[in-house]
Amino acid sequence: MSIADLKQRLNVSVEKFSEPAQAQNKFARPHKLIKTLDIIERKFDDMENAQPVEEKIINSIKKLEKHGTDYLTKRDWKNIAWSLSKKLPHYEDKILFTFIGGKLIEQFNSMQPELLKAVYFPLLYSYFAVEQEEINKRPNNWLGLKNILSNNRSSLFQTTTRPKKWLTTLTDHPELLSADPSKKFIRNFLHNSDEDRVSNQLESLSIAPNSWFWDSLVSSSIKSVKTMKEDDYLEAIPRFLRLLEQNPIYTKDILTALLERYATTSRRTIVHEVLKNISLTQWGNPQFESSAGWRNISLDTKKMVIQWFVRADLEAFFRLFSHTADRDRFDYWIKFIDKISFSQIFLGTAALQSRNPAHKKFIELNRGRLKNLIGSTPSNNAFLLKIDNVHIVDFSDTGNACYGYSDLPFNLSKKNITVHELKSKQHSIFKSDSGRGMSLSHSGNWEARFDEKLSELGVFSNQPASPKYKRRH
Description:
alpha/beta, six-stranded mixed sheet, 6 strands, about 5% strand, ZorC_EH_Signature_dom, EH signature domain-containing protein
């Protein structure tokens, strides 16, 4: 083969390997090399955007105070950009919110693009690093900083050959520099199974944990509860409860929003056990006027929660603790639930000493609300209901009558109440034909007799009795 033929074949081969598509087919992609390069680039970016030590920041500030802006180097300007989020010696507030901070904002606003490019990330960090309370006190300088970042973001991205990850993130989410920076993230924050998704999305921005942004995200999310569709709201309740547990500072706002929204749903009459128990822990018993925390919600919502406690108390009394109780009594008293403003359970020794897990759980969750019934049979329990202005006392064991009072003949603040204190015909407002106080027995057609006696006292039910519970065999 001649040299000319060899040269021709060589040129053909070279042309094949010169084509990008062919090169990909002939050579394996260097994945490890690309991964290593990415790691090196990340480390370089981290070093480039690392905060300087406070001493260097202080030295640059002193240089500014002594010589003015004319003697500042590029490194000095970066240090000063970082200083905006710092509370330095001899300054009462963070530099951003001081007089000198206002002057610096003017300097950054008129800065040449090339120098602004060098200080943009420190300015961005300072924008996120302050707290909402600080912004509320002196918002003008912070708003000025936001305008600088917003006005120069697009041009910075366009003139950067290889944008850093933080710049790409900021470009993908320009709303971060808008008047409503958290709106786009609320749904992910509330409904995504990955609770850290938002923070992962914005990781490259190095947003401080106490930043106004997280406060804005949580506050906006809480406000969104009011306008949520019912299904979305019910689905989001567990997320809010986890948020409340992780951030106790938002307890009042979260609990208020959840309860107010629940009161407008079709499930209003269905007890939400977790909300009920958390609200009891945080604000105390809503049935006592002395529990000031309940002033955070409307009277109608408070009434809903009170009815939760009443329903839970009656269900526990008749279903959980009192196997000897007449279940028809539950059907009778529950029809007054919209008029009951107070309920109290008195547990006998059998219930108090029970090892039944359900009994122990109820007692634990209602610690502080329950009273001890003494001087009666171990299986006997009692309850007190305030229906309008009438106090009703009834018992679980058959053979015990019902009593009604206008004013209680016993001290409800005591932990131990005797059965004799609960039974006082002398103070009962149920009257016999002769005008003497009496109790009402549960014999014969007792429901009709109870209705008659209560109607004499001005107490009427707005709803029929609940369907009868099937007796257990």
